[in-house]
Write a structure and sequence with these properties.
mainly beta, nine-stranded antiparallel beta sheet
Length: 156
């Protein structure tokens, strides 16, 4: 007896579907079971799109640094260094990130990449909506970022 290709596919998929169904916890009534009491809380989904046209602030610790970006202008702030101004033609924006290629008047270049990804600075309990990476003269700085008006603040 010959099997049709469609019949063979059904026979091949049936064990897989049964296996997947068996892996899903269920209540006796067949509904999905609630998570165990000791399960970590579900994280809210992080959006992959952000309004990068707003002024942004990225900052990090160890070493401390901050970059404020407003339109095509940016300022790098670091202790024991003079404030340094940069200009960029704008950001290269793709889903979930923005990349700024910046240049200072003295020719120094800086690349700032903002990723839409929840971030904690490691020294406080503050949570930011973005992760930041800065490349400056062979140095890599990592930190967190948010629209400047929405920067998280301690105590509120």
């Amino acid at each position: 007896m010959w099997k049709t290709r469609e019949g063979s596919m059904r026979h091949a998929l049936l064990p897989l579907l049964l296996l997947l169904a068996a892996c899903q916890p269920q209540d006796p009534d067949g509904a999905a079971a609630p998570p165990p009491a000791d399960a970590p809380p579900a994280l809210e989904p992080v959006p992959t799109v952000s309004d990068f046209s707003r002024p942004m602030t990225a900052r990090g610790t160890e070493p401390f640094w901050a970059v404020r970006i407003d339109g095509t202008k940016a300022v790098l702030l670091r202790p024991d260094h003079p404030e340094k101004a940069f200009e960029a033609p704008g950001a290269q924006i793709s889903p979930g990130r923005a990349v700024y290629e910046m240049t200072a008047q003295d020719g120094t270049t800086m690349r700032v990449t903002l990723f839409v990804s929840t971030c904690s600075d490691g020294m406080s309990d503050l949570t930011y909506p973005m992760t930041a990476e800065v490349e400056l003269a062979g140095e890599a700085l990592r930190g967190c970022a948010a629209p400047t008006d929405d920067l998280p603040r301690e105590g509120g």
